[in-house]
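Give me C-alpha cells for this 116-residue protein.
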Amino acid sequence: MATTKTRKYDTKKALSDYYLYVPLGAGQLLVEKSKALSEKAFDLAKTRRKNAARTYQDLADRGQKVVRSIRTSSATKRAVSQTKTARSRVRAAATSVRKAAGDTAQATKVAAKKVG
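Here you go.
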C-alpha cells in the first residue's frame, strides 16, 4: 500500500506570505505605472512644444506678410510722401517765423530809439 503524505493547510503561513507579496506586487505596479505615465508626459510635452513652435512660426509669417503689405501699399507711400512735404513746409515756416521775429525785434529797437 502506498502511503501519501498530505500537507495540512497552514493559514498563518499563507497570511505571512501574502504580507510579503502584496507590498512587492504594489511596488512593481507602481513602477510600471510610473514608467507609462512618464512616457505619456514626455510625449505630451514634446507634442505641445512642437505645436507651440509651429504656432509661433505661423504668427511670425503672418506678421511678416502684414508688414510687407503695409510697406508696399499705395496709401503708405502717399502718407510717407505727404509727411516729407509737411516736414519741409514746417521747417520753412519755422525759418520764416524766426526771421520775422528777428526783423520785428530789430524794427522795434529802431522805433524805440527814434521815439526815445
